[in-house]
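Anyone up for a design puzzle?
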């Protein structure tokens, strides 16, 4: 088989390394110690890590090690040594799949032969590889130690990236459907191309998108997207070189986005008004950093941003009582980012039997800008996250984010929103977890046609989407999660959940009568194990514990794809 031949290609590289090691031994009495054998096609990426977070076990900090050689070992989508995956169809998929080219993996490495590495660099590089859509799993392993030199193996698991995308989402009366084709590893080059038709409660859309996340070997990225919508358009063009690693010292960004859309307002899950909105945004920025110093990375970004908003009456429904004023802002901004170098890798937390990168430390991003003019404004945005408890069977994390404008002459906030979320994972058995989640949102003086809603996929799965509206909301969720060992057709990992949702809205647009709403339900989770999409398919049935405005109480079926369990 072609796959078996490719796997053996790693052997001559290692044999050559072994010969070189023997020569060094003969000349300088350096002894080579074999640490690991090359990974086979049945390699288990979660076998060597703790479910609740391993900090890494490279043991390289006692002395510096220089990289002597790097072997790229790309494992096939289906393991043909596993009888459940060794059938005619799966072997055929392995044969026709365009494997990721070794140079694509090499471009993502933060080191090369001759460089000195430590545990932190190797662990961070694993995280960078796992972020790529063409990689299901990744691990960097030490094969040999020869004095102060090491031979490394970069192991990745291929995923099927050429996907005829068919997605369906149904939640509380809202139906979404998309059909198209995407390839997140075009001909094995790591580039992404997609063409889709999508339809939801807001609009029909035709989308064409292209992205190259690493042009040449420079970490430069280009992204282009064009959507033709039933209510307007969406165009996006970005060209950037991001802070791709904790020790990156510079970055830059240039981008432009244009959107023409109809914003719909809801009440009790039904559309009652709409607003036409055209917005153009652009940014030119430059980032500087001293890199990773004493366990922290500090980054400073400065640049200029542009926003232009036009508002007009809708087409099919009445407009809101007050149409927002058009707004144009051009302003310089300054942003500060601080990241604590404290990461771990676990599994069966938000995914199912897939390595998950956990940021245990603190992260802060905060920016502000000043827009002069007749009505000068200060513009603020940012986010903060931290882990309060991280130990076996307990993971408690929280985060907040905000966006706001302060109108100086009027002395008031405009279109300002603050979000807070808290997540607790409490392990009960090796495959069962109690999850508790709380989130709250507060909006101040929203004039942009958007709403704070609760219901359906925005929380309270037993009620219609956008059922409740207000200036703020709070929601609490409790879920009993089961991560099963079932691997359906060797394509989907299977999980289950029983849940309770409780929520409430408040503020000027409160249509709840100051009531608290709740629901109970159960669901199934399907996590694709062989495709590039790390999302989890949710199939939930939720039953409301209170009657709706029409005195009814009926179960809701929620079908959706989410990034987490």
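Challenge accepted. My sequence:
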């Amino acid at each position: 088989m072609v796959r078996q031949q490719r796997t053996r290609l790693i052997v001559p590289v290692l044999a050559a390394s072994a010969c070189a090691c023997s020569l060094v031994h003969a000349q300088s009495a350096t002894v080579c110690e074999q640490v690991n054998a090359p990974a086979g096609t049945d390699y288990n990426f979660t076998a060597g890590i703790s479910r609740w977070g391993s900090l890494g076990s490279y043991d390289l900090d006692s002395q510096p090690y220089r990289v002597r050689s790097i072997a790229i070992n790309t494992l096939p989508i289906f393991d043909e040594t596993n009888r459940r995956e060794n059938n005619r169809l799966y072997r055929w998929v392995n044969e026709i799949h365009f494997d990721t080219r070794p140079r694509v993996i090499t471009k993502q490495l933060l080191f090369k032969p001759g460089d000195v590495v430590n545990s932190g660099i190797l662990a961070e590089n694993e995280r960078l590889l796992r972020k790529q859509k063409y990689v299901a799993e990744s691990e960097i392993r030490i094969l040999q130690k020869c004095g102060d030199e090491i031979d490394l193996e970069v192991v990745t698991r291929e995923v099927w990236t050429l996907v005829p995308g068919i997605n369906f989402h149904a939640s509380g009366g809202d139906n979404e459907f998309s059909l198209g084709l995407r390839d997140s590893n075009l001909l094995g080059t790591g580039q992404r191309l997609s063409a889709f038709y999508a339809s939801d409660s807001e609009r029909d859309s035709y989308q064409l998108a292209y992205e190259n996340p690493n042009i040449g070997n420079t970490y430069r990225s280009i992204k282009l997207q064009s959507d033709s919508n039933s209510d307007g358009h969406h165009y996006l063009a970005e060209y950037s070189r991001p802070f791709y690693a904790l020790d990156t010292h510079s970055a830059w960004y240039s981008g432009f986005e244009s959107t023409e859309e109809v914003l719909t307002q809801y009440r009790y899950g039904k559309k009652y008004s709409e607003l036409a909105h055209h917005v153009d945004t652009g940014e030119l920025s430059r980032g500087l950093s001293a890199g990773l110093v004493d366990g922290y990375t500090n980054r400073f970004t400065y640049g200029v941003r542009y926003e232009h908003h036009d508002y007009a009456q809708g087409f099919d429904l009445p407009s809101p009582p007050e149409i927002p004023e058009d707004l144009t802002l051009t302003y310089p901004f300054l942003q500060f980012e601080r990241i604590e170098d404290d990461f771990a890798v676990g599994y069966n937390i938000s995914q199912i039997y897939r390595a998950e990168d956990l940021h245990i430390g603190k992260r802060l991003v905060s920016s502000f800008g000043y827009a002069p003019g007749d009505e000068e404004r200060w513009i603020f945005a940012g986010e903060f996250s931290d882990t309060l408890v991280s130990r076996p069977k307990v993971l408690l994390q929280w985060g907040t984010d905000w966006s706001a404008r302060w109108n100086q002459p009027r002395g008031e906030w405009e279109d300002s929103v603050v979000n807070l979320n808290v997540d607790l994972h409490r392990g009960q058995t090796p495959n069962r977890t109690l999850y508790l989640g709380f989130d709250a949102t507060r909006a101040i003086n929203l004039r942009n046609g958007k709403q704070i809603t609760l219901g359906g996929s925005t929380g309270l799965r037993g009620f219609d989407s956008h059922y409740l509206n207000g200036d703020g909301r709070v929601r609490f969720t409790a879920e009993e999660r089961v991560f099963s060992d079932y691997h359906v057709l060797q394509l989907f990992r299977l999980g289950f959940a029983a849940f309770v949702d409780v929520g409430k809205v408040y503020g000027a647009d409160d249509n709840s009568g100051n009531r608290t709403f709740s629901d109970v339900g159960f669901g199934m989770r399907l996590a694709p194990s062989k495709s590039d999409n790390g999302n989890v398919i949710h199939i939930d049935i939720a039953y409301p514990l209170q009657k709706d405005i029409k005195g009814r109480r009926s179960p809701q079926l929620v079908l959706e794809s989410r990034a987490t369990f």
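A detail worth pointing out: The first helix runs from residue 2 to 8.
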